[in-house]
Every structure is written in C-alpha cells, then in structure tokens.
Amino acid sequence: MSRLLIKNAKALLGIHAQDVRLLAGAGMADLPQITDAWLTAKNGRITGFGPMAEWPGITDWNDLVVVDASGRYVLPGWCDPHTHTVFAATREEEFVDKIRGLSYQDIAARGGGILNSARKLRDMPEDDLYVQAEARLAELMRLGTVAVEIKSGYGLSAESELKMLRVAKRLKDNLPLQVKATLLAAHALPPEYKDKREAYVDLIVQDLIPRVAEEGLAQFVDVFCEANYFTVAEMERILDAGLAHGLRGKVHVNQFTSLGGIAAAAQYGALSVDHLEVMDPADFDTLIQGTQSPSKGALGPIPTLLPGCSHFLGIPYGPARALIQRGLPLALASDFNPGSAPSGNMNMVLSLACIKLRLLPEEAINACTLNAAAAMDLVDELGSIAVGKRASLLITREIPSPALLPYSFGNDLIDTVLIDGAPFRTGEALA
Ligand code: NIG
Ligand code: FE
User: Fold this and answer.
1) Ligand 1: which residue has its CA nearest to atom 9?
2) For the whole model, what pTM was predicted?
3) Of the residues 46, 140, 170, 275, which has the maximum number of CB atoms within 10 A of its CB?
4) What angle do CA 9, 332, 382 make, to 5 degrees?
C-alpha cells in the first residue's frame, strides 16, 4: 500500500470538477487552481487536496512518501493521444533530403517515408522492437508523459501489424504509464497490393479488425485519409467495420488535402480527427455539427492538432484559434514518429502550441491534459486533479508562473514525475 503527500505546493493546476470531461471554446482557457496547497494519494489514486490552511494533517506517517513542493506547481501529467512510438529505425537520411529540397510527398513517391519504415520493421524481431520502444517511452515518462496512444501502421501486412500491436500490448503490461493501441493498417498501400487496393482493405476489414478486437490488441482504428493514401470511401468501410467490433476511429485527416474525411469520421462516430492542417470552411461546419451530436452521448470527434509535425515538415499549422473561436474543443498530441515528428516531448508540443498555434498557456495545458485524455478515452482516469483519478502528476522546478513552461521552449522545467502515486523521476522536491 503506497501513500503520497504533497504539501506546500505553490499551486495545484487543473482542478476541474469531476463532471468536466472535455473543454471547448472559451472554456479552454479555464484552468482552475488552488494556491498554497496539499494533495494526498493512496494506492495510486488521488484521495484529497485543498489549501494548506485547511490541511487536516496526517496521523500515520508510516510508508508515506512526502514531497515538499514549495515554490513549485503541481499539474496533471501529459497525455499524448497520437503517436507512432513503435518503429524500427529513425529516418534522418530523409530529413537531410528534405533540407536539400524534397517534400514529404517527393520522398514517399521514391519509396521512402512510411514504406521505408515498413521494410525495416518487417525484418526486425519483435523483442528488438520492444526494447527500442520501451527506451523511448522511458525517456518520455521522464519528460512528463503519463499516457500514450500508440499506432501500428509500419507493418502493412497482417503478420507485421499484429507484431506491432503485440509490442504495444507488452509496453502496456510492463510500463507504469497508460497505453492505448490503435490499428493503423491503412497507413499506406503495401507495394504488393498496388493493383488490388480493394483486397488490402478487405484484409483489414475482414481479417485484421475482427482478430485485433478479439485478441484485445487495440482499442481504436485509424486510417491515413489522404491523396495517394486512402480514400474517404475506404476509410468509411474501415470505420464501419471498426465500430462493429468496438473499435472507434481516431483518424488522420486533412494533413495535406481536404477530402471530406472529417464528415465521414463524424458520421462513423470517430473519437478524434487528427492533423487538420488543411481545412475548408465547410470542414469547420462539419466539425461543429459532429461535436454537437456525438454518437450515443460519447465524446467526439475531438479535433487534435500535431504542431510538432508542422514544425518538422514545414507545413501549415492547424487552425487552433479558429477552432476555439467556433466553440470547438481542441486536444494536442506529439505524433511521435520517424518521418514527420521525431520527438515525443510534450513540453515541446506545449511550447509550439503557444508560439505557433497562439494558444494561451492555460489553453495549451488543458489541450495536453484534460482534452488529450478525452481524445484517448482516459478522461475518467487522467487529465485533471480530481479525487479518484490516477495520481500521475508533474511537479515543476521552482518557477514564477505556469507560463514559464511553454515560454522556456526546449528547456526542461520538470523536477519530479509521479505515475500512479509513485515517483518515476525524482527531483529536488523529493530529495
Ligand atoms: O502522422 N501522416 C501519416 N502518418 C504520420 C507520418 C508517418 C511517417 O512518415 O512515418 C503522421 O504524420
Ligand atoms: Fe500520425
């Protein structure tokens, strides 16, 4: 039985009421806090918090981890609802090609990009893939990530897609952070299906989705809906089959082209629509209609922006301010992958959100915590400081205000990371 006491916190941030499950529009700037505060946790869950002036005290000091957070902020750990963390190799040679002038699409057309990653992953033993991904996640937990969604999509055959999802399952079973997995077999058309695209979609719909659902290897299904990748009609087939097997959509749409994928995602009850770098005016209306009448009272589709991808590829940033002005919710994610966003650092995402998407620090923190948790169906577990939620928390260094987090881009201002009430990264607050 592990117990935790944090006392003297400069402030607890993100004290949202229990029934707040998603923030939208003007509400995104609402980051409730308690200054000069305490927090307790037991068996990994938050049991209480409040101002020091009203601290009830502790009678049993045995087995109690005590953190003095004087001068430090305590906030919910980062949730990252869109990553491709399982991959076989980095692609820095393509990065150099990009510097020389090739575009993401040029590189893909030469057999690079996703197909390059798929060739390498097919040849790599499952254990090697696991060891690499585990090391990546260990680094990300140190940087404050307490939940991560991981996609397949570098397998592009039944065997290799299942291999990727088994790796994600082992990560989920072995690491302290929360992991959700997504089947992204429709990430690129495998070359062997070049002249029979329908057969590949059949394989996904008839074989992979039922099998993955039955074996509990994924909770969501994804499609890269984009020119030269998968069409809206193909995505609809896949989302429909996913729904029939309990896998909701979390889809790549509007990265380079607006094809109508948002409307299809809304129609098939997708939890999130991710990327959105290229938006037609009609896409905003579709999103508004979709979020106002979500299927069966469920959340979604939640617009999820990936500013690390825009930064790395030099493509437009998603229209964050326009989405918020239209009253929509917004989540942020890293898109960690070897081709378009080779960093899973959510502190950097927070900075880019303020610098490039023009989010206020409060909006960006909410988009990386509460709304990000919602975009991976974890909002009842994580994303805010609330009694009963997981005590997966960040304790900052001694800083003057929370705005210093996004302001100090590239700097590490985290002192301590707690995951389920246990210290994962121990800093000065715990020493
Ligand atoms: O989210 N857009 C498609 N998929 C990834 C990139 C994958 C890759 O290039 O390896 C993305 O940007
Ligand atoms: Fe992605």
Assistant:
1) 339
2) 0.97
3) 275
4) 50
